[in-house]
Design a protein that fits this description.
Strand order of the largest sheet: 4-3-2-5-1-6-7-8
Strand content: 15-25%
Distance between the termini: 31 Å
Shape: globular
Structural class: alpha/beta
Radius of gyration: 20 Å
Number of strands: 14
Order of helices and strands: HHEHEEEHHHEEHHEHEHHEEHEHEHEEHH
Number of helices: 16
CATH topology of the largest domain: UDP-N-acetylmuramoyl-L-alanine:D-glutamate ligase
CATH superfamily of the largest domain: Mur-like, catalytic domain
Largest sheet: 8 strands, mixed
CATH architecture of the largest domain: 3-Layer(aba) Sandwich
Length: 375
């Protein structure tokens, strides 16, 4: 069975999570793996961008580097980046064929989509010097946490995935920081509880400060100022690995859909209040928000954050079992007195922010033609 057919047989999300499944599978496959030096990325927002910046810095320094990120927007191979390019279909099929031979059939069947693709990435990264592994929604029990790593980078931690991670910042930070194996570099944190948890867990850590002028540096390359935090954390990670390289080179390697400007449109896969607050600082009051959301997200808080900065909301229909019921979203918009209607098309005389999840950005790109598909 080919890779895409095999993956399509697995649900993207499991309502019940078994934390023992990935470690048990890893013990079976571990003797056959030759993993590069791994750097682990955990946190709430900015994991993908931070990981890509770090992988790019290491690549520019002459190392062979892989970067595993998730989810993807248009093509699965976006998740597995090798030396500056998304993995080729041939590389992925080769890793898939090998993985099918290494694990028993019942284990292959039991692994979740994310667990299977994590193993796939590890096999694809064999022969590289470094691999940057981005955690999914968790930390301690995340599929990426079973592998030995040499360093953990922690992006800003905030509320998200409460049903899995906990209702408080302390609970969320505890789950994420328990993934640290050796030492950690922490981005500046909004919540003081994060550092308190790091101390309570006895983690060897350092808070990374953003150097003066970094906001201007990323802005000069067409990026939002808040990417300065991601760049500073990635640079600190590279230095901890003994690598010093001009960070401006890393800014030319970008992930699709991260505060990405295309003409009069900003595309962002964010889906929580932390992302909304960051984006609200870079849009003007006449922006149209093209939006939809998963039902488990704090969409009322998100819309309250955007309300002073947007002209209206245009709801983008998305076919996904996790998308909130249309009547609930419309009721919230009505309660907040935010004008809304259904999205139809982009007009040249308006500014737009497409936001809400990877699924929203994916649907927008599929609807709006080749100009956006090639970004």
């Amino acid at each position: 069975m080919k890779l895409q057919e095999f993956l399509s047989s697995k649900p993207l999300f499991y309502k019940k999570f078994d934390p023992t499944r990935m470690p048990k599978a890893y013990e079976l496959i571990k003797p056959y793996l030759k993993t590069p030096a791994l750097i682990h990325i955990v946190g709430t927002n900015g994991k993908g961008t931070t990981g890509r910046f770090l992988a790019s810095i290491l690549k520019e320094a002459g190392f062979k580097v892989g970067h595993y990120t998730s989810p993807h927007i248009l093509e699965f191979r976006e998740r597995i980046w090798i030396d500056g390019e998304d993995a080729s279909p041939q590389q992925l099929e080769a890793a898939h064929e090998r993985l099918q031979k290494l694990l028993p059939r019942e284990v292959l069947r039991s692994l979740s989509y994310f667990e299977y693709t994590t193993f796939l990435a590890i096999l694809a990264f064999e022969g590289l010097d470094f691999a940057v592994m981005e955690a999914g929604l968790g930390g301690e029990y995340d599929a990426t946490s079973v592998f030995e790593n040499i360093l953990t980078l922690v992006t800003p931690i905030d509320f998200d995935h409460k049903e899995f991670l906990g209702e408080s910042i302390e609970a969320i930070a505890t789950t994420k920081l328990k993934a640290v194996q050796k030492e950690a570099l922490l981005a500046p944190q909004k919540h003081p509880e994060v550092e308190k948890v790091a101390k309570k867990l006895g983690i060897a850590y350092e808070i990374v400060n953003v150097p003066k002028g970094y906001e201007e540096l990323v802005a000069s390359e067409g990026l939002a100022p808040f990417f300065a935090v991601n760049l500073a954390l990635a640079e600190a990670g590279a230095k901890r690995l003994g690598v010093r390289e001009d960070v401006r080179k890393a800014l030319h390697y970008r992930l699709r859909g991260r505060a990405q400007r295309v003409g009069n449109v900003i595309l962002d896969v964010g889906h929580n209040p932390l992302a909304a607050r960051a984006l609200s600082r870079i849009i003007d009051k006449e922006t149209i928000l093209v939006y939809n959301t998963y039902e488990d997200k704090d969409y009322r808080a998100i819309l309250e954050i955007f309300k002073p900065k947007i002209k209206e909301v245009q709801i983008l229909p998305v076919k996904n079992d996790r998308i909130v019921a249309r009547e609930l979203l419309e009721k919230t918009l009505t309660d907040l007195q935010i004008p809304y209607r259904e999205f139809s098309a982009i007009k040249k005389d308006h500014n737009y922010l497409v936001f809400g999840s990877f699924s929203v950005v994916e649907e927008f790109l599929k609807r709006c033609g080749q100009n956006f598909m090639n970004i």
